[in-house]
Amino acid sequence: MSERYRTGDRVRTSTVDPDHHTRLPHYARGRRGTVIGHDGVHPLADLSARGIQQPQQVYLVRFSARELFGHGDHSVTLSLWEDYLSDE
């Protein structure tokens, strides 16, 4: 499976607030971050919870605390499926 994003790419997370299970934290929706690596190919958790297996690339995305919470000088890294991301 090819990787859509490379280390150093800037991405934005989805703003969708589905009525079903999702592994995209609410505090990270619509936020901008930087891809810092890849975390393998895994079934999309949102679909797996409904019995559907759809493997896709998972990325390590770093966000500044200021971007996520409005303050702080640290960063937060999340493992996020490709469906959660778009080009900035």
Automatic annotation (TrEMBL):
Residues 3-86 form the Nitrile hydratase beta subunit domain. It comes from the Bacteria. Pfam families: NHase_beta_C. SUPFAM superfamilies: Electron transport accessory proteins. Residues 1-22 have a biased composition (Basic and acidic residues). Residues 1-25 are annotated as: Disordered. This is Nitrile hydratase. It comes from Lentzea flaviverrucosa.
